[in-house]
């Protein structure tokens, strides 16, 4: 019974941390609990949450995707450019932008799976390429002036719930369904747990990697669409550094950097923690540089804890 209780506490520890942080910031600044601030947090975490689904898949196979921020940026620029300068309808621009984001993911899959470039180098290369492409396409200036109806995606409400939060919840549900109810999900865990054994058992590891990086690109692209709608302006630096926050959310949520282990439900907690941590530090007037320090420490602690768990399990 004692062992069961300890295992339950261990599995729910991330939610305990979330509750403590929430209570702490609520006590430190009364504005934290205001409805306007809570809605701000909800919209902000929606972008982290959507992008974290694809990143969860990637880290489950012991990979990494550093191009997430650049995908968010290029989707911002391309979608806005199509609506403003090319006469595309809102729906057509969104579909084309998401298709492009998926193809960027396929490119990452090609570099990692077919060419054999380590994921950290391959995705860093595409990060630089598409960050530069965003500047070239936009001329380094914001793109704005598109249809006001587009704001609904990032600023609208369905009853009392912000539309971005609804999109995030749907994405988490899709991610959980893929991992728990499809054979693709089982393949993700298998490849992350032991790639060689997966090959020997007949799993097409290369195809799995293509699929995972394509999904990572798609979810990052969707996060970019939500961001564009929320800000109503496409910035050439829109997604800069987002990959760091998204990776932190996923690792903090207990997805093992060694691959093969992780749950979407805990990633939700990781996303919420990063959201309230960022918002709470802003309310407390913590400098941007100190926020970077804190987030770096959080990431190091999360990865360190995972490494200790792996060592203990191996013993």
Describe the protein in words:
With 315 residues, the chain is mainly α. It is built from 14 helices and two strands. The chain has helices at residues 2-11, 13-28, 35-60, 68-85, 90-115, 119-138, 151-155, 163-181, 183-193, 195-200, 205-231, 242-252, 264-283, 288-314; strands at residues 157-158, 161-162. A hairpin with a 2-residue loop joins strand 1 and strand 2 (161-162). Helix 2 runs parallel beside helix 13 and helix 12 packs parallel to helix 14. It is globular and about 55 Å long. The mean pLDDT is 88.
Give the DSSP E fraction (strand runs of 2 or more residues): under 5%
Structural class: mainly alpha
CATH architecture: Orthogonal Bundle
Number of strands: 2
Question: Helix share of residues?
Answer: over 70%
Mean pLDDT over the residues: 88
Spell out the helices and strands N to C: HHHHHHHEEHHHHHHH
Fill in the CATH topology: ABC transporter involved in vitamin B12 uptake, BtuC
User: Assembly state here?
Assistant: single chain
CATH class division: Mainly Alpha
Which radius of gyration do the C-alpha atoms yield? 20 Å
Number of domains: 1
State the separation between the terminal residues, measured CA to CA: 24 Å
| Strand numbers in spatial order across the main sheet | 1-2
Give the overall silhouette: globular
